[in-house]
Amino acid sequence: MDVLETRELKYFVAVAEELHFGRAAERLGMAQPPLSRAVQQLERRLGVRLLERNRRGVALTDAGEVLLREGRATLDAATAAARRTRRAGGADNLSGERTRLVLAVKTAAAHELLQELLDAYAAEPDAAEVEVLQCGMCDQEARLRDGSADVALMHVPFNSLAGFDSEEIMTENQFAILPAGHPLAARENLSLADISDVPGLPPARWPRHGIYPPGPGPEIRDQTQLAQLVALGRTVAAVPDSARAWLWPEHAAVPLADAPPVVTHIAWPAHSRSTALACLVRTAVRLASSR
């Protein structure tokens, strides 16, 4: 049989992650014997061994590794579907709540664009309530995938658009943010090479697609951390033009002649059919064409 129940997947994923039936049963709030029987029944139905059991414990087989990966994705999708359905209830919502969209954004990024988008969308006749979900570096992708958000502002090359539909709404050049008293701050422009090997000022490491590159510089988690480290003379970074809105007096901004542009997209799950979301996307595209 090829049909799996979410209950079966939940049981198996707990055992596969804990690699211990006792801990998995405790995590699930159930007794161990019925959990063991449920996993054995699942193996019989699929006709494959998912777990190797011996005196030393439990280990995943190759088939078990596949089901763990697929099971997690299926359970995440089910949770995301429930979250999005609840928010999209509108007139059919039993609690009487208004239809709501959750928009994930990187904290302090593209602030002017975000304000314009929220104001323009609010003026639409059938606009939904928009909740702005502030995220750390590259967190927008995860929030879209797990259903915590319906739509996001994503920044390429830092975010990945894989698996999402998207529209490009803004392109920005980058500048170097430096301590105001640093000798490089007096230059009219800089190159990426100029800021890659400054004695005593290692470049900040930004995550791309959630992964930090190797290097001696600090891992940057948010704009406030970056602002303070630059002001203290501990790092230098390349940031998009919209970041000028949060610069401190202790900072200097110098254009980067060869840095790739940062492109902001509005992105959403490819399968979405939300009319409220479609209206928000149309508003964003209209704003982009008028900027």
From TrEMBL:
GO terms for cellular component: protein-DNA complex. Belongs to the LysR transcriptional regulatory family. InterPro entries: LysR_HTH_N, LysR_subst-bd, WH-like_DNA-bd_sf, WH_DNA-bd_sf. The keyword DNA-binding applies. It comes from Streptomyces actinomycinicus. Keywords: DNA-binding, Transcription, Transcription regulation. Gene3D superfamilies: Periplasmic binding protein-like II (3.40.190.10), Winged helix-like DNA-binding domain superfamily/Winged helix DNA-binding domain (1.10.10.10). The keyword DNA-binding applies. Pfam families: HTH_1, LysR_substrate. This is LysR family transcriptional regulator. Residues 4-61 form the HTH lysR-type domain. GO terms for molecular function: DNA binding; DNA-binding transcription factor activity.
